[in-house]
Write a structure and sequence with these properties.
Structural class: mainly alpha
Radius of gyration: 21 Å
Number of strands: 0
Oligomer: single chain
Mean pLDDT: 84
Helix content: over 70%
Low-confidence stretches: none
Length: 442
């Protein structure tokens, strides 16, 4: 088990760093606009909550590339792997463009969600620009999923790390109006993020086309780079349920953010701070899940059931260990971490309370995303989607609403509901993986 976990970590750590760099773009936006006012921070919260479900559905389609390429690689089939990349890029780019257009057209909805009126007005231009930024982000992630699946995980990591100073520099220019640029504040943060994501997509494509490590797959382009409906159907078969799985979780957090907004701008800003920090820690769990999923997919492609079992159970152990580390980290630093985003005492105090609840669900959050990833690695996506829906929307959200409003616990009640939903998802998905691989009796 130690050897298997070590191999998974070696593959996962660059993915984790890349994931953290992606979420760091949002953290940089929030921290820099939070320095202007907590209303700007609350507006970024509203926009990010609103874009969460569309964005996650798009990301879910990109995730389908990884297991399909990994399975093909396990079978030593470079042509199929290269074809999955080509068809995946076309499918995901067109889909993300459609989603971005729908989001931009639907922007006025933000004014009708019962939020603070000033916050609603500030959020709309930012929401539109980050909607368009979905397109380059999805192109980057599509190519990155291919690179990860052939175990070239450091490529995305280097690009992700390089993008952080680029994003901070662009934000500095457009948020504060440096060097003659307009002072766009929150909208400027969106412009910085858009340009950074364009940079990521261009660099990722150029590396795959011209780096020798990818030569085998690029050389197969004459046979592979054609629109193939069979591969598109396979991508949709995994991508749609995967997108729905992630959308169930992101949607639960997004709806929770909207409910918190009913409690006022201070509560909403506090919620966004706690959510930013929790999302950052979740990126490590997601990276571990993706590494485990890739390795399970390789074993699945080889029809190696014992390896699937060892990889899966060792990855779950790793999720438990990481989750307990995060529990201690969140509790010990719950008052210090919010100060990164704001100096407002009331916001810091409430965010510290929410971070305590975030600490409680760290183990569940880590293990549930690993369970989902392992099931995706063995191409089991349909029933897990239903299980995740029940966990979040049949259990977590109703419990959170009941605690927050009828029981008058406020934002704390909403976050307790998230604890319950994440725990249910972890139990459902990991038990199914154990049953499917015959670790425990069905």
């Amino acid at each position: 088990m130690r050897n298997e976990l070590s191999a998974t970590l070696k593959l996962s750590i660059p993915i984790i760093i890349t994931n953290m760099s992606q979420i760091a773009l949002g953290l940089i936006d929030s921290a820099m606009v939070g320095a202007i006012s907590y209303k700007q921070l609350a507006a970024s919260s509203l926009a990010l909550n609103a874009i969460a479900i569309p964005q996650i559905i798009c990301i879910g389609l990109t995730i389908a590339i990884s297991p399909l390429v990994a399975i093909a690689r396990g079978r030593q089939d470079a042509v199929t792997a290269s074809g999955v990349l080509y068809n995946g890029i076309w499918l995901n780019t067109l889909f993300s463009a459609l989603v971005a257009f729908i989001c931009v057209v639907g922007t006025p909805v933000l004014a009708n969600l019962g939020q603070d009126p000033e916050v609603a007005v500030l959020s709309q231009p930012y929401f539109q620009i980050i909607s368009w930024s979905l397109i380059p982000m999805i192109i980057f992630l599509s190519v990155k999923q291919f690179s990860d699946a052939i175990e070239m995980t450091k490529t995305g990591m280097y690009i992700g790390l390089a993008s952080l100073p680029v994003n901070a520099f662009l934000n500095w220019i457009f948020i504060y109006g440096i060097w003659g640029a307009p002072r766009w504040e929150l909208f400027g943060a969106g412009v910085g993020t858009l340009l950074t994501r364009v940079f990521q997509a261009i660099v990722m494509i150029l590396i795959v086309l011209y780096h020798p490590a990818y030569k085998r797959y690029v050389a197969a382009s004459r046979l592979a780079w054609q629109i193939k409906w069979k591969q598109i159907r396979e991508l949709l078969h995994i991508g749609i349920p995967s997108g729905m799985q992630y959308a169930m979780e992101a949607g639960a957090f997004a709806v929770s953010g909207i409910m918190v907004g009913w409690l006022g701008a201070t509560a909403q800003a506090s919620h966004q701070i706690a959510l930013n920090i929790a999302s950052f820690s979740f990126m490590a769990s997601l990276g571990l899940a993706q590494g485990g999923s890739i390795r399970v997919s390789h074993a699945f492609g080889r029809n190696d059931l014992p390896a699937m079992r060892r990889i899966g159970i060792s990855t779950i152990y790793g999720g438990f260990a990481y989750g307990f580390f995060c529990v201690a980290y969140f509790i010990l630093l719950r008052y210090q971490l919010p100060m990164i985003f704001t100096k407002e005492p009331a916001v810091i105090q409430m965010a510290a309370i929410l971070l305590f609840y975030a600490a409680i669900f760290q183990v569940s959050d880590a293990t549930q995303t690993i369970g989902v990833g392992l099931l995706r690695g063995i191409r089991d996506v349909k029933l897990p989607t239903l299980l995740v829906a029940i966990a979040y929307w049949g259990i977590g959200i109703p419990v959170g609403y009941w605690l927050a409003f009828p029981m008058k616990m406020g934002a704390s009640g909403i976050w307790l509901g998230l604890v319950v939903g994440l725990t249910a998802s972890s139990v459902f998905c990991n038990r199914r993986f154990l049953v499917k691989t015959r670790i425990i009796p069905a």
